[in-house]
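Can't attach files on this board, so I'm pasting raw text. These are the components:
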Amino acid sequence: MKQKETIILGIESSCDDTSASIIKNTAILSNIIASQKIHEEYGGVVPELASRAHQQNIIPVVDAAIKKAGIKKEEIDAIAFTNGPGLMGSLLVGTSFAKAFSLALNCPMINVNHMKGHVLAHFIDDEGKSKPKFPFLCLTVSGGHTQIVLVKDYLDMEIIGSTIDDAAGEAFDKSAKLLGFPYPGGPLIDKHAQNGNPLRFEFNKPLMKNYDFSFSGLKTSILYFLQKQEKANPHFIQENLDDLCASIQHTIIEILLKKLVKASTDLNIKEIAIAGGVSANKGLRKAIEDNAEKLNWNTYIPKFEYCTDNAAMIAITGKFMFEKNLFADQTITAKARIEM
Ligand code: KG4
Ligand code: ZN
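---
Top answer:
Structure tokens for the assembled complex are below.
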């Protein structure tokens, strides 16, 4: 017997991207993302401006997702939305919209944890790409989080390591700011790193227990190094930009890989995935592939558009929750902090 098709609308608004996606089972019919340029000039996301922009974007983005998918809104079986973790004002826009739309369509809603969404992005259908087998390890690296997650099943995950201070994305963005790049500087470091020498400069690496990370010392080490160099040569950054980017990127990747390799060895798990905005980084992708050869890993890296914040990952998580009847009711609230 043919299984009934499930159509889910996913909504993501936890930080500075407003996104809506329609999925049919595990296939993406649309994934619309409106990014907010307004934060560039401030060197970071300004929460109040982010929520105002979400407010303006949410209806056109959902409308575009439904139109692009070629469905009628009445065909939607459930609305999955991010209710945390993230910026409160931003989360409230998506959460309130989902509640209202669910009442209007008379369909159930599903509250999704943003970090779970990043992990489950690996289960979106992508031609020719295989999906990780349980149990697998997922290095989830974004602007707000850095975690090693032991994924035992779709909805059974355990965080075995995390950052005690800055996230890996913050380490990229804060370093980029020191180099004079606008926010978010991560992709710009990545771009310049491609032409630079990763071993030219050496920065402090933390000594952390177990599978935990720390990035605040790296930022301080870069700051002091640049201050010292610029005293001797005010054009030091411009003259060495590519090598600086390559060396900073190399250090961040080494910090991440050291713990991922340790977790894989200790737990004897060779199914290795990466997720989150920083997994778009070319250097990290290459380092993961290099380790795969050396350590016999099966590696899984999502397509670029499913790495950074997107609603397709929320919709796919919603689909797995839908199958388990994990629905929310109208008392659901947005939560800035939320456990996995
Ligand atoms: O997952 P994401 O889109 O949003 C959060 O949930 O935080 O991640 C955004 C982060 C930013 O810090 C951004 O600089 C970083 O991901 N990022 C990158 C790259 N693309 C995005 N960092 C390094 N290299 C990249 N190519
Ligand atoms: Zn994210």
